[in-house]
Amino acid sequence: GKPMAIACGHPDATRPDEGACLGSQRVQTTTTTGQDRPHEAALLLLLFGLPLVLGVGMRLARHGLWLNDFDALLCAGWRAGHGANPYDLAAACPGAQPPPYLYMPQLAWAVAPWVQAVGVPGLRLAYGAVHAVVAAFLFAILFVKPMAGASLRLRAPLLALTTVGALGCGNIAYLAHALVLGAALARRRAPWLLVATIVAVSAVKPVFLGYLLIFAYEQAPLQARARRIGMGLVLALCAAGLVALTGGSALLDWKAALDQQVVATYTGVAYLNWAAHLGLRAHDLVTLAGYAVFVGAVCLSGLAICEVRGLDREARLFLAVAAAQFVNPRLMSYDLVMLAPLAIAFCTVPPPGRNAFGALAFGAGLVVLGLHFAGLSHMAIRVGPLLYAGLFLTAGAWAGLDAARVRRPVMAGA
């Protein structure tokens, strides 16, 4: 067929399934930037952001807890500064009600002098201001600004996955996501910065190594991609070795906390949670094998979409950011905001499936919204990732089949 590009988010489209992506399709396609009508964009954000807005209002009215996840870090620093075990919940922390501390002990030791100098309330106030700016940055990039042509009609439904609990807990994941996204957007001017940022945040949360997918999906020769991924892995291994060498006996307490809280108690909202509902434990061989298959399918699906659909540099970056979330076996509610760029995958599906994908993606958001309003928010943030993972894998399989259909006649002609 004649080369045509997909135009996502066309301003003249009036229906969610038709307005999401318009244009003809061939196996090699690209996305072009579309625009949403301002009033329509505002209505979409209001609709799918309603659970978050109402949740914030209710928490303020009830004087609920804010930044409690950050309190875990502050209190670990307070304990370390007073010679106690950072992971010992029995050691009281003044002015906070923290959950268990689950990061490496070196982070608590680094925070300790600041806690002693400024105090827990003062640091919480300062971090609260930073957290607000970080959250505004992420929401602006993911839901307000144009994104590689993906219409807000495909992105806005994913906003329903973000709850007041995810935003209000103040987990440092928001800061980590923002740092990686900012470094990725600036990588053409400072390519080393992205590698350094991924290594730094993965030292705190190893699951952030999934962001190396940004290099796997970029527009570059395969050798260059492999070299950058290898560099990131080697540096991450060096960082892990440094943590092991300097952690001392506190590393055993860290491992015990992780085993109790991460593996056994809080399995997240994605793969480990799905496995738990099937009666599988995190360390079971079936669980580990299934995870390897799932991650392989996710990575290959994103790669197929990038290469077969001919995505541009910006689209590849954002799609990698979204796919990296599914690589995280313990995806948490505060990570779900980063799934918004999945809209790019849905946008590039060729006719006749494009309208259906638009409708299904929009419908998934409505399902999540309905569960929130039914008082089942705990279920909404688990069902949503499952639905969107299924759509993403289907879009990737479709791209792979399109590539195979084109390759077959070429090989036959040869």
Main sheet attributes: strand count, strand direction, barrel closure: 3 strands, mixed
Query: Number of DSSP strands?
Result: 3
Question: From N to C, what is the helix and strand string?
Answer: EHEEHHHHHHHHHHHHHHHHHH
Strand content: under 5%
Spans of at least 5 consecutive residues with low confidence = 1-7, 9-34
Helicity range of the residues?
Answer: 55-70%
State the end-to-end distance.
20 Å
Average residue-wise pLDDT: 88
Supply Rg: 22 Å
| Strands in their spatial order, largest beta sheet | 2-1-3
Count of helix runs = 19
Please identify the structural class as seen in this structure: mainly alpha
